[in-house]
Amino acid sequence: MNFSMYPKKLMICVTCFFNEDRLQYLKKISDRFSELGHEVSVYVITNTRNESELDLINNALSGKGFYSKIFTPHGLGHSYLLPWAHFEIVSANILDQSYTHFMYVEDDILIKRENIEYWINGREILRNLNLYPSFLRVEKKNGDDSWYSSDAIATSYAKHLPIVNVVDGNYSFLNLPYPYQGMYFYDRELMIEYLNSAAHTPDSGSKWLIREKATQGLTFFNFPDGFTSRNVVGYDIENKMIDSRAFIHHLPNNYANHPDKTMMNGTIKVDELIVGDLK
Does residue 1 register a pLDDT over 50? Predict the structure, then answer.
């Protein structure tokens, strides 16, 4: 894909509840921000007003080829509402027509250029179906090179999944039952739809907890009949594999390495997530 098709101007909002030990993740994900668009503006939403802590956040962001600003909201009420504070920034800038794309992401999820390529290609295929490309959070288990799904708690039978077939017949998009991805990425059209919908309030949508719900976007709003969400993931039919460009690494790997063996998150290998043939 030619880089000319990447976002002309991308706004990235990142929630960072201050914890010095976790700044390693902010530093690592922000290393890739400048490659996600021609021009990138990054807003880090944090709870701290401590000058030394703000300096540490700035140090994690500086010198990486993008504009950055730290925002500490007033009158938050409860710390769980911090992820929702990014709407203040987006709403204040949505009328700036130079912004073509918008991303909200938790501070420990690595987004790469190939993820953006996958999304933009898929967006054009799915545009008229009221669906959009989704990502799959993945993790590594200690001593294991396989990718594990952070969020799926069961395998899915391919023939039972809602599907969008692509013209060449070798690629499709699957509507998975566990669409949580810890972020959203939208073009201007989808972002305006989101801001004008009931979806961008904490009381709307899914049964996800309030912090997680800030990432749902339009996932559970206005999806087509026969589907369970707007989110669909690319799938290679011939090789029976989810498109690896959809993988976004949840850097802490805390689900895959959780000591509680009764917890299902992080236990299913991505290669084993889809069972059987599509037909």
Answer: no
Burial class (CB in 10 A: 0-12, 13-18, 19+), 39: middle
Q: Are the CB atoms for 102 and 191 separated by under 8 Å?
A: yes
Which of the pair, 4 or 135, is modelled with greater confidence? 135
Measure the CA–CA gap between 140 and 148, rounded to whole angstroms: 6
Q: Answer left, alpha or beta for residue 167, where phi above 0 means left and psi between -120 and 50 means alpha.
A: alpha
Q: Tell me the pTM.
A: 0.94
Domain(s) labelled CATH 3.40.50 in the chain stretch across 1-107+183-205
Q: How many helices (H) and strands (E) does the chain have?
A: 6, 16
**Taking Cα atoms as reference points, which of 136, 126, 134 lies closest to residue 224?**
126
Residue owning tokens 């894909």: 1
Say which residue, 30 or 207, is predicted with more confidence.
30
Q: Which fold has domain 1-107+183-205?
A: Rossmann fold (3.40.50)
R_g of the chain, CA atoms, integer Å:
18
Q: What's the pLDDT tens digit per position in 29-48?
A: 999 999 999 999 999 999 99
Q: Using CB atoms within 10 Å of the CB of residue 232, give its burial: 0 to 12 exposed, 13 to 18 middle, 19+ buried.
A: buried
Q: Give yes or no for a contact between 223 and 216, defined as CB atoms under 8 angstroms apart.
A: no
